[in-house]
Amino acid sequence: MDRPVASRFRAVAVLIPLLLGQAALAADKGSVAATIAQAEQKQQQARTMEYAWSVTNDYIAEARSLLEAGDVDAADAAAQRALKSVNASLEQAATEAEAWQARVPAN
Fold it and tell me: Which domain holds residue 91?
């Protein structure tokens, strides 16, 4: 092989795994839908505990809307925000389940 052909071959050999790796990182509709469903299920749990944050509903609605519009990456970001939000609300519920006792005077 002459030098220019060999260097082009090396460049292509390096780029192919990088490009394939990016494709693997991109969100797919199924995984985003699963994340939305998980956030919805946890939001219902937070509602039952009376610690649901209203902003989580907005994130879920945004994720669902973006997914329906075909913007999978933006939908994934919104679904992840919803999941983080609902997880924080559940953490707050767990913390408050014990913390309230420190705010009540002892007899």
Answer: 27-103
